[in-house]
């Protein structure tokens, strides 16, 4: 058995996955658009994503565009880093235009830890335990 993660986006799935591929070292393995978007989709969405897959750090994340998708609330994707410098770099990248829940700082359980939601609505925990 394997566990994958599926995230719905409000018209920004392609943009989000391309961003994660470029900046997080992910690899998009599949991206399919709707041949003809359903009638209830916003007309300003050009080529909404029906289904996409990206691998980040050995984990498959799947995604799609759906109307009225809300930002992630009760779940976080967690990225673990080997160095505090890399944690800080990705924190600055993902928090830009996003929402910070807990700023990057040293905690009793980690050298660096942060919680945030990026500009695409994906919630992240960033962790450097060393």
From TrEMBL:
Domain Glyoxalase/fosfomycin resistance/dioxygenase: 9-125
CDD domains: PhnB_like (cd06588)
Pfam families: Glyoxalase (PF00903)
InterPro entries: Glyas_Bleomycin-R_OHBP_Dase (IPR029068), Glyas_Fos-R_dOase_dom (IPR004360), PhnB-like (IPR028973)
Annotated protein name in UniProt: Glyoxalase/fosfomycin resistance/dioxygenase domain-containing protein
Taxonomic path: Bacteria, Pseudomonadati, Bacteroidota, Chitinophagia, Chitinophagales
